[in-house]
Write a structure and sequence with these properties.
six-stranded mixed sheet, globular, 187 residues, Metallo-beta-lactamase, Chain A
Length: 187
């Protein structure tokens, strides 16, 4: 699958999440980081990372524990509870996500999509037709688990309905492969 110019994929291995890197004038904007610190560092190619998280689970940020991270306020508030499934994980430096992020030619809208965690978000980039969905939606219509601490099935269903109403061309999920959205699937 061909990604738009300026977007790179660091594919997650095993339980590690995918990381998406958007090149810009101020370094690299990273959406999630995965768990492999060495692979993450190589992918940055010496650039300064700015890290946005789709949610607070450690498999999305362990590769960048020394970096400042932006996360939805609901996940910042419940960070320890959300990560109860991960043993011995220290809390990194966290800041609350803004509603919109401009990065070079990219403008990311932060969409609240709770269910997997209370503060799960998707990042919608309308100009390039991209939806960075974290663990809310995966390829082939699968969605993230809601049986982890702080997950909520009803919230997940509402979030999936919201995503169904969105106009995007490429689904960039937190795990597994990228998926092109078929025109016939649009509402």
């Amino acid at each position: 699958m061909k990604l738009p110019k300026g977007v790179r994929l660091l594919e997650g291995q095993g339980l590690s999440s995918n990381a998406y890197l958007l090149d810009g004038p101020e370094g690299v904007l990273c959406i999630d980081a995965g768990t492999d610190a060495n692979a993450f560092k190589r992918a940055l190619k010496g650039a300064k990372p700015h890290l946005l998280l789709t949610h607070g689970h450690a498999d999305h940020w362990l590769a960048a524990t020394k970096e400042k991270m932006w996360l939805h306020a609901a996940d910042v508030k419940r960070f320890s509870d959300i990560n109860a499934i991960f043993q011995g994980v220290a809390t990194p430096s966290l800041s609350k996500l803004p509603k919109k992020i401009k990065w070079g030619s990219f403008v990311l809208e932060v969409l609240e999509t709770p269910g997997h965690t209370p503060g799960s978000v998707c990042f919608l980039e309308r100009t390039h037709g991209l939806l960075f969905s974290g663990d809310t939606l995966f390829a082939r219509g699968c969605h993230g688990r809601t049986d982890f601490p702080c997950g909520n099935h009803e919230d997940m269903q509402a979030s999936l309905e919201l995503i169904e109403s969105l106009d995007y061309d490429l689904l960039l999920p937190g795990h597994d492969e990228i998926e092109e959205r078929q025109q016939t699937e649009r509402a």
